[in-house]
Amino acid sequence: MSDETPYTEPVERVAYDFGLSRRSFVQVLGAGLLVSVGEGLGLAAERRPRGEGRRGDPAARVHIGKDGAITVLTGKVEMGQGARAELTQAAAEELRVPPSRIQLVMADTSLVPDDGITAGSRTTPSTVPAVRQGAAAAREILVRLASQRWGVEPATVEARDGTIAHAATKRTLTYAELAASEDLPKALGQPAPPDVAMAAVKEWKVLGTSLPRPNARDLVTGAHKFPSDTVRPGMLYGKVLRQPSYGARLVSIDLGPAKAMEGVVVARDGSFVGVAAPTTHRARQALAAIAETAKWERAPHPSSKEVFDYLRQRAGDGAPKNPFADELAKAAKTLRQTYRVAYVQHAPLETRAAVAEWSEGKLTVWTGTQNPFGYHRELAGAFGLANDQVRVVVPDFGGGFGGKHTGEAAVETARLAKAAGKPVSLHWTREEEFTWAYFRPAAVIDVEASLDAKGALTSWHFININSGGAAVDTPYRAGKAQCRFVRSDSPLRQGSYRTLAATANNFARECAMDELAAAAGVDPLDFRLAHLDNPRLRAVLEEATKRFGWAERVKNRQLDVGVGLACGTEKGSYVAACVEIRISRGYQDQFAVSRVCQVFECGAILNPDNLLAQVQGCILMGLGPALREEMRFEKGEMLNPRFRSYLVPRFGDVPQLDIHLLNRPDLPSVGGGETPIIAIAPAIANAAFHATGTRIREMPIRLPGAKEP
Amino acid sequence: MATDKAIAFTVNGQPRTVTTDPGRPLLEVLREDLGLTGTKYGCGEGRCGACTVLVGGKSVRSCVTPVGDADQQAILTIEGLAKGHALHPVQEAFLAEGALQCGFCTPGLILEVVGLLEGKPNPTDAEILAKLEGHLCRCCHYPRILKAVRRAAAGRTQP
């Protein structure tokens, strides 16, 4: 990725347009020292660059109040992945204060710099350095202020524990005393030095430690207000009319029955129809009353059973032909296989939710999103508002996993609030989320490969239809290689999901590599190592297989027990997994994953406990689409939009976990909340082959003859 | 529409009366009428456990419990667990083990465990797992949650 291009992910937005009036809106922080990196202080909303708040971005980062309170500002969000802890650590490290001194303000678009979307594992490599840079600049300004006051060289004073100290004369000034200083304007007049020193890894005192979630106490007491918990004075509860099937067109509807209900507001704007009422119950009744009068014109829609053919038939400019036919012709062994991955959904426990409030033409929305500034722009666009007439506030919310990049729920809420003239809360039902939120794309992946007589990979041709280009390139050495992503016409709205298409691509690649190893008559580990040059990927693979006892486990076969392995790299981090599965024979053969040994490496570890939680979470979340999760649909209707029929992992699915984090203090830190998900599914499929002798080339992975749910 | 009824119960020890449609889910009355937003909506079908509260000491899924069923009952929600600044031991255990990621499932899980330990101070691991199976954590923080629950259960057995 270029340093100049903001990180983006593919999203299909719902194109609402509710053009309305324009006014202005100003929001300020309290008095004190406001340190900007690069430029002077000002309002984030006025100078907001689009994209990631990298070094040198003109973005206010650090505010030190006259009472010494330290506020650090970031456009990143907290959804359980641990950004609040790690960014607090980043600021505390460079300001040289305990983390408890830092108050981190996240994702209020009227206050914070645009740090880009919270996705793509970008917080660690991009925002942590930006926050450190801002905090180090603030520290440097405090150092200069104190040294000027004392008439000493800045190099002779030291910042330590919220205090600037001059050891030779035993003089000290606290940050609070300096923030109250009359010298402040002069100090602020000097630009923050661009080359301010940041702590080296070996000097870290706060980074590299397991700081817990700073607001954990509010989460165990119920005091924390999630977006869906937001309450505003006079607030109503909204419901939106949904189509009975994908693509259905509203022909007519009688709004009368809802309008006749006491306290109910009805809004219609083109195809958008919604209600708001004093309670959710009343809103549900009002919506039901008009929904039964609605006439719809349905549209054809493929079923999930035929969707893979549908996607292949509509593959972009046509899938490129394999240019390595000569290699296949002269090969000792060849592989030609297709791998399929079903549509799945993120299903964050907190469904889409927003509260919207209009005041003097200005719109404030509290919502859960990974894309606060994207929502900000989406709202401004939908209502024809100027940038400074919109404010998006993102309280720490209940899970994202790549699923909360688009703002339709916020736009719907704002439209209802506009009609009601009162704040409105909208909280999608689980069924709405499972039907109208977007999905991880289904994949059809064609792999063709050839081996020479010595078992060396002479050609590799890999085509992903529909699901994406993440990790489409192979890390393995091949004589000739072509890897492509080809777009198709997805019948479901699709978008990002934890590590995007890397899961599908790694599934196909790692299954195919296992098949090629078998064709070459070589152990799957040896076959991979023979084609692998990247030392970091080799290191995690060797460590995982050593810890698992791979060589022994392959030699000593047990009845109805299978072992499999897989590895991969994406977003600059490296993962390898060995799994053990156990088959239970019966009317229908089934299997359970009994053990997972995974090794993960993402450079210097910022917070070991949080990283371990992310790796565990990835493995267990990854079990869902590997074993059971798939959206099933027919005639434009979702057949399993509920947790009783869309089966996500539960406590009982947790296998024995042996997770090892390889720390590399010598390497830059990269994110760890995504890539650990990509090895589990192919390792399971390969273990199923080891146990049964049958290759399963689909996710979810089901044994032959297993009943579909 | 059903006729509104006066329904009286205690919530976290406080007597409350609501006059409402007795068919409304208890969850919505707690959140919308009583301002107790610590109890969460996750699925509306009693399958995720996020809405768990204790009614008469037993865990119920408040999203599928009509408020009328709570008439004359004692309801405990997450807001009523701590005594002033002193957290309940189950809350302490969740904090000590770092047993949350996004935290949306946390209140329901904590109340489930409180209910379990009230009724059965020394549950077996199988009994713990059976109770937890009805709860979803989409962050899949299951191992750490299980550790916290075992820690809370072990704490109960000590004098």
Report on this model:
Chain A is α+β, with helices and mostly antiparallel strands. Chain A has 3 domains: 189 residues, Aldehyde oxidase/xanthine dehydrogenase, molybdopterin binding domain (Aldehyde Oxidoreductase, domain 4); 145 residues, Aldehyde Oxidoreductase, domain 4, CATH 3.30.365.10; 257 residues, Aldehyde Oxidoreductase, domain 4, CATH 3.30.365. Chain A is built from 18 helices and 27 strands. In chain A, the strands form 7 sheets. In chain A, strands 10-11-8-17-14-15-16 form a 7-stranded mixed beta sheet, sandwiched between helices. In chain A, strands 20-19-18-13-27 form a 5-stranded mixed beta sheet. In chain A, β15, α10 and β16 form a beta-alpha-beta unit. The longest helix of chain A is centred in the first third of the chain and has 28 residues. The radius of gyration of chain A is 28 Å and the shape is globular. Chain A starts with 32 loop residues before the first strand and ends in a 10-residue tail after the last strand. By secondary structure, chain B is an alpha+beta fold. Chain B folds into 2 domains: 73 residues, Ubiquitin-like (UB roll); 69 residues, Orthogonal Bundle (DNA polymerase, domain 1). Chain B has 5 helices and 5 strands. A 5-stranded mixed beta sheet of chain B has the order 2-1-5-3-4, sandwiched between helices. In chain B, a hairpin with a 2-residue loop joins β3 and β4. The longest helix of chain B is centred in the C-terminal third of the chain and has 16 residues. Chain B is globular and about 45 Å long.
